[in-house]
Amino acid sequence: MAQTESSWALAASGSEARTVHAVTRQGLPELLALLEPSAAAFLRDNGFVAEAGRVVLVPGREGVSAAVLGLGAAPASPWSYGALPYALPEETAWHLGGEADEDAATLGWMLGAYRFTRHKAPPRKPARLVPPEGSATARILAEAILRARELINLPAADLGPAELSDAAREVAERCGADFEEISGDALTQGFPAVAAVGGGSHRAPRVAVIRWEGSAEGPLVALCGKGVCFDTGGLDLKSAEGMKRMKKDMGGAALMLGLAEALMRLRAPIRLLVAIGAAENAVSSTAMRPLDVLRTRKGLTVEVGNTDAEGRLVLADLLTFAGEHQPRLIVDAATLTGAARVALGPDLPALFTNDESVAAALLAAGNACHDPVWRLPLHEGYASWLDSSAADINNVGSRPMAGSIVAALFLRRFVPDDVPWAHLDVYAWNDSARPGRPEGGEAMGLRALQAGLMTLLPAWAGS
């Protein structure tokens, strides 16, 4: 995945570079006074008032001599800088200047420079940023997000369960962690629901496990990701339109792998257990059927009310596995329900949690780092909608309402009562291109989870 490496968007330190002057409306008079009179006059004649996101190229004797980026009146987000890589001359090198926030600018620049180029050459190459010396954290977060985007963007023909497991292995090797792959008879016995979901495909399911001892005394955090590499809906077949983007149905796994990489590379004082359920929900004579009763790792039986509600079956086994290790926190992520998108749209992941301190930390962190999530309730009144006459629980609700809540209530049955747990129902996709967010796969919620987890650690140390 060479196009996701930092060198793709960044210039080497010491490169000869021009300056991007980032400026707010309040700071514009000072900048105009500092610039050459001809440059200041050029900006005035162009009607530049530092409106957010506007980029003006300042001419010089030998072409473009500098650039000015408007930040508006509000504090800048990474997205304020996301258009720069393609607004500036191709493959030129640039320094940050003016009122630029170095971390936000580095993150926004790298995320804005990304394009999925595995099967199509880009029409042009981005301008490069000479990274500020103090931007290492932003670079690590950006690289983790870019790798997650790349996984989500890969066509299902390129990324099946084996390839997704290999991607988890690469993360482990990159970060000095231990890796284990569970497949075959061991999967059937230990993760029977994952095996059932993937049983209809010739590409065999598997569970990828990463273990990292970052801090021997640190709390254990478990991350679980739904890795359905393509979802036909199974025998309850999706429509053509509903199936169109189902290569992204492993977006939760990509998000958890990106988060794990970021935490490990940033040397978070924790221990990590990462479990990725990699499967393909296909149609064949060996696929699970409506009203089949499945066994789960926890021992609960599940009636299959709909084969298209397969992601929660994968997570059921992963959450049980995570709970067996008595972690301080379990986090799972999945492209789980269309109902969450109906409620919150494509940009806001739905957050469900059984712990108020976890909710507060994640909500505050998401808002602070411009990666928001929105909490929805684990409303106990809907739990009976999952009742089954044939098994301990059904995998879908008996009423066509509150689908994301009911799915979260299903998952909760597989989490130990005394373990804090957060579930993120994500879209994992940008429907259209915006600065810093090209059309395609997206690791939404990754930065909120990383920052929120860091704010929780001091409180855990005293518990």
UniProtKB/TrEMBL annotation:
<keyword id="KW-0645">Protease</keyword>
<feature type="domain" description="Cytosol aminopeptidase">
    <location>
        <begin position="306"/>
        <end position="313"/>
    </location>
</feature>
<dbReference type="InterPro" id="IPR011356">
    <property type="entry name" value="Leucine_aapep/pepB"/>
</dbReference>
<keyword id="KW-0464">Manganese</keyword>
<dbReference type="InterPro" id="IPR000819">
    <property type="entry name" value="Peptidase_M17_C"/>
</dbReference>
<protein>
    <submittedName>
        <fullName>Leucyl aminopeptidase family protein</fullName>
    </submittedName>
</protein>
<keyword id="KW-0378">Hydrolase</keyword>
<dbReference type="GO" id="GO:0030145">
    <property type="term" value="F:manganese ion binding"/>
</dbReference>
<dbReference type="InterPro" id="IPR043472">
    <property type="entry name" value="Macro_dom-like"/>
</dbReference>
<keyword id="KW-0031">Aminopeptidase</keyword>
<dbReference type="GO" id="GO:0005737">
    <property type="term" value="C:cytoplasm"/>
</dbReference>
<dbReference type="InterPro" id="IPR048816">
    <property type="entry name" value="Peptidase_M17_N_1"/>
</dbReference>
<comment type="similarity">
    <text>Belongs to the peptidase M17 family.</text>
</comment>
<dbReference type="Pfam" id="PF21337">
    <property type="entry name" value="Peptidase_M17_N_1"/>
</dbReference>
<dbReference type="GO" id="GO:0006508">
    <property type="term" value="P:proteolysis"/>
</dbReference>
<dbReference type="GO" id="GO:0070006">
    <property type="term" value="F:metalloaminopeptidase activity"/>
</dbReference>
<dbReference type="Pfam" id="PF00883">
    <property type="entry name" value="Peptidase_M17"/>
</dbReference>
